[in-house]
What does this fold into?
Amino acid sequence: MKVIDHINQAKETLISFEVLPPLKGKGIEALYNHLDPLMEFKPAFINVTYHRSEHIFKKKADGSFEKVVVRKRPGTESICAAIMNKYDVDTVPHLICGGFGVNETEDALINLRYLGIDNVLVLRGDAAKNESTFEPEPGGHKYASDLLKQVVNLNAGVYLEDELKNTHKTDFCIGVAGYPEKHFEAPNMDTDLAYLKAKVEGGADYIITQMFFDNAKFYAFVDACRAIGITVPIIPGLKPVYSKKQLNILPKTFHIDLPRDLSNEILNCKTDEDVEKVGAEWLLMQSKDLKKSGVPVLHYYTLGRPHVVANVVKDL
Ligand code: FAD
It folds into this structure.
């Protein structure tokens, strides 16, 4: 079922989770162990992130280095199918521009359709690890809006080979990303919102946000979206803090702020177990407030800490 249908049919705020594919070398059981404690909360859907390949330099026997390509977390599409099969829940594979040519993207979409997957979250992706700025694949998409157009075309039965006749129309529900604290490359919030609006006008059914720790920023973002005519549902993305290191890693990686009250509480913690408690309380406080405000879905980035998220959702 489509995310947008879940939202339209819901009588109260829904719950959804986001997981990463297991690291190469681990079995799918690692992911099931992660998801098992979360399934009692009947998530409306589960997102599965996409991780592009990286170039690394491997030392050879003669001392020289060889450039090799590794993909640490393969398998988004097949993992979605496995999750659907095991838990009978809808999934949302993340689809990115980075590393994909348009033909590979089309093949991926066709495969998703064959697997019975109704949803995609359409993203640009970040710069590859060894690049300073995002570079599209030759002939690939530069922005999420370009990738979105390809999905919209396929939904209309328009494939890359225009001589195909009487084609099957896919019917993907399309989500896109939004940034309550602005995408880090955008020169200002207004420009970022204008591009977000273009994604919605291009056919996105809903927006899901980058994590944030200050609900006031989310509400201001929603207001700003509504003010420029973005009417689709906006789903808040939420993540627990569980270690002191995250005080610096989260702002650096995701270009977000942690409110002073939260960072002070974390700084006062003696151990990471204490930080986890503080993070869980903060997440519960955010969740209750967002639920009260009537958000359509609470979307949790469970990454590495399913038990923290499970306890928060239980207390909601
Ligand atoms: P875009 O919408 O293309 O925007 C990128 C930048 O370009 C923005 O600054 C925007 O303002 C600007 N822009 C947009 N359109 C135009 C245009 N036409 N002309 C000029 N400028 C433009 N990354 C992964 O690799 N895998 C994942 O699974 C993943 N999941 C994510 C899930 C969520 C909910 C979020 C919020 C992010 C996720 N990301 C993921 C990270 C995401 O790929 C990065 O944040 C990326 O830098 C931007 O992606 P986007 O889809 O927002 O890009």
Observations:
- The mean pLDDT is 96.
- The first strand starts at residue 14 and ends at 19.
- Strands lie at 14-19, 45-48, 54-59, 65-70, 90-96, 119-123, 173-178, 206-211, 234-238, 297-301.
